[in-house]
Design a protein that fits this description.
Blueprint lengths: L1 H18 L2 E12 L2 E11 L4 E10 L6 E7 L8 E7 L8 E10 L8 E5 L3 E4 L12 E4 L6 E10 L1 E6 L4 E4 L6 E8 L6 E9 L2 E9 L1
Length: about 210
């Protein structure tokens, strides 16, 4: 009797998966927040059931090769409309086209193993660096990604250098004096791996650059 009940439930879930559950309103747009260019990917879901996660796949310059770029956990089970947001901080190349699609993985067999279910629609963005991000030629930061030790080489005068983590907390502030140019060495080895933002103050103009520690 239990076997028959399980088969009925399984068939019901397969029907629901193939017809009722959806990924809708997939949209991608370029934003510049705090001087940092990024691509924001949004979508909604309807009637999630045993969903595990989304694999965000990305294609560059219409090369017809989608590769797994990141993963976002799904809510799992809901009959409500659910909103999702993923931000691509790059690195992103000026003049390139980026296309995204979502690969849904779920546990439709109730065996604690997530399997590929279906793809969402594909959306694309033609990426162009904003004016803020194109003003870096006089500043050269290396290596990036880094293991923690960073060098900034510059020809312009630097007043101060600050480093912020992904949630906006300052983790480093330079002890240099105003009106100095040359090379500056910084060390954030004691901080966790992830994405950071470097803010350079040069003659009261602020320049932002992404930094990856790994």
């Amino acid at each position: 009797m239990k076997t028959i009940f399980f088969i009925i439930v399984l068939l019901f879930c397969i029907i629901l998966q193939s017809s009722g559950q959806q990924i809708v309103n997939v949209n991608a747009s370029q934003l510049n927040i705090g001087g940092v260019d990024q691509i924001e990917l949004k979508w909604q879901t309807i009637n999630e059931y045993t969903w595990c996660y989304f694999v965000i796949e990305r294609e560059t310059n219409n090369n017809n090769i989608f590769t797994a770029y990141d993963t976002l956990i799904a809510l799992g089970n809901t009959t409500s409309i659910t909103n999702y947001l993923f931000t691509d901080f790059g690195p992103l190349q000026n003049g390139s086209s980026y296309c995204y699609r979502l690969a849904l993985w779920n546990d439709i067999d109730f065996d604690a193993v997530c399997e590929f279910a279906f793809y969402s629609d594909t959306v694309c963005v033609n990426f162009t660096l904003s004016i803020e991000e194109q003003t870096y030629p006089s500043f050269y930061l290396y290596p990036n990604p880094t293991n923690g030790k960073i060098t900034i080489s510059n020809s312009n005068i630097i007043t101060s250098i600050e480093i912020y983590n992904a949630i906006g907390e300052i983790i480093y502030k330079s002890a240099i004096y105003p009106n100095i140019s040359g090379q500056f060495l910084m060390d954030i080895s004691g901080n966790s791996n992830g994405m950071y933002f470097i803010v350079i103050n040069s003659d009261n103009n602020f320049y932002y650059q992404k930094l990856i520690k790994q």
